[in-house]
Amino acid sequence: MGDETVQKQYDQRIGQVARRESNGNNVVNRLEIARSSYDPLAAQPLLPGSSIKGAIRTALLNAALAEQSPNNPFSTFQNQRQRIIPTEAQRPRDAERAYKKLGAALQPQTFGYAENQKILLERDPLRLLRIADAHYQPKEGRFPSHIVWRVNRRNSGVEGKGMATLIEALNASPTTRFQPAAYRGELTVEQGTPLGQDKTPQRRFQLPSIIKACNDFYLAKLKDEVAKLEGKADPKWIAQIQEQVFKPEHNGKTTMGHMIANGKGFLLRIGRHSGSKAVTVDELRRIYIRQHEKFSDAPFTRWLSAANRNQQDSCRPFGWIFVQTKKL
Fold it and tell me: What pLDDT was estimated at residue 53?
């Protein structure tokens, strides 16, 4: 139903005049469809290793800021954040620049690769984490991607100000359930030289700590999203998440929730429509909403996948994946 609806709307609009400019020229709908990342040799989509690593980095940073340690810079950044907040109303652009400067210093100081105001990338502990692109695993009867409408919706469910556009979304069919083992990649934690030596990281993340940090961070975000979307999002998607992620067992079968509880896999949210809460750390989050020219600790709208640009319910969020780990 979803792909047929998209095709019908595409056929109706392609080549039609979208608007007329003041000089009399017509602007014609070309309806370019934004592609996802793909492997040009296999002609199949992929999940970039850089996107996966970036999502892991956010979770590890959030976990590091929550540690009880004398070297934890959280309180310092929290104090600086509190000093910026009073300037938001009168000087929003200055406040935005100040938050960006604060954010740029957050990782180097927390992960220990800043020294005397210099950034020493060789000491970044994530340098020892190598993640390859995850390639699609073809299987008879399933499709790697679908063309959907990217629609902007307020938290209340009504239409937001963001423009609806057609995009290619991975595994986004409104009629399919989760697709297990759809992508395969490699995650390697290098041991490297002893910690603390010159030009080496001061700390190292092992796989169990990576799994825990990701689940602690993203599971809370997923639960919050399900709570906010209940009654507005696709009820099938809501039910699948509740059965397969929030429960350790369903119909006598092991679920993703069981693997999460036993450290055998972890949640991530990746991609350009993941939402600001998934790419910023808790407690220090401050988001500038340009359309409203104000700051907030949470976004006012979210991007959702829809079969119809005017669809108000039964939409789905973008970006959620589950990574099952297996030692080679």
Answer: 97
